[in-house]
Amino acid sequence: MIAQLILLSSLTTYNVKELLALLLEAASKSEPKHLKVAIVTVAWDYSYLRFFVKPERQLLIENNIEVVIIDLKHLSHEDLATKISTFDVIYAECGNTYALKYWSDKIGLLEALEGTKQKLIYVGSSAGAIIVGKDIRIAGCCSLFDDLPLFPADVSGWSLINQVIWPHYNFVSRILNWIFGITRRHYNDCQILKIGPNQIIVGELNRE
Q: Mapping DSSP to helix (H, G, I), strand (E, B) and coil, where does residue 124 land?
C-alpha cells in the first residue's frame, strides 16, 4: 500500500538533496544506494521535453540511487504487482498527464500500488503529482504542449488527496490559467494544492 506521498513540480539540482533526505527518512535507510526505486516512465515517454532535456531519473542516478524502469505499456497487471512489491519507492516522472492516466487505468497501477503488502513511498513529479488529486484537467495550466489530451483518459484523478494538485505554480501557469479559464470552468468547488517550481510537499493521504 502507499504509506506516504511526496509531491513536487520537478526534480532539479536545487531540490534533489531535500528529496533524498525525505526518502531516506521515510524508508529508514542510511544511504541512497540502499534505496530501491522504481521509475514509472510513461508520462515522460509522451513528453516533448525528452528531446531537449535529460529525464529526472538521471539526477537520482547521479546521486548514487539505483533505479529500475517500469514501462506500463509492456506489463500485465500481475507482472506489475509482482514488480512493485520489491521496491521502497515508486517514482512517477513528469510528462504528459493524460498518457499517465490512460496507461495507469489500463494496467491498474493504483490497484497494484494499494494492493501490495509492502509499505510504499510514492513520489509524484508534475504529472505524477497531478494524478493523485481529484481531477487532472489542471494539467492545462502547467504546459502548452506537454499536457494535450493525447489519450481519451477519464479526467478524474486517484483522489488520494481531497484536492486538485497544481504543480509548476508560478507566473506562467497563472497566465495559462487566465487564458484557458481552467480553474474558473472546472474547480469552483474544489480546493487546490499549489506546488511551486522547486517546492516539495509531503501529502496527507485520504483514507476515508
A: strand
Cell output for 189? 468547488
What long-range pairs does 149-152 form, CB within 8 A, spacing at least 24? 149/98, 150/46, 150/96, 150/98, 150/99, 151/98, 151/99, 151/101, 151/102, 151/103, 152/102
Q: H or E element: which one contains 91?
A: strand 89-92
Scanning the structure block, which residue is given the C-alpha cell 512493485?
84
For the chain, domain boundaries? 2-203
pLDDT digits (tens, 9 = 90+) for 147-193: 666 776 688 999 999 999 999 999 989 998 888 888 888 887 779 99
Q: What is the pTM of this model?
A: 0.94
C-beta atoms surrounding 196 within 10 Å: 15
Which CATH number does the domain 2-203 belong to among 2.70.210.12, 3.40.50.880, 3.20.20.370, 3.30.1330.10? 3.40.50.880
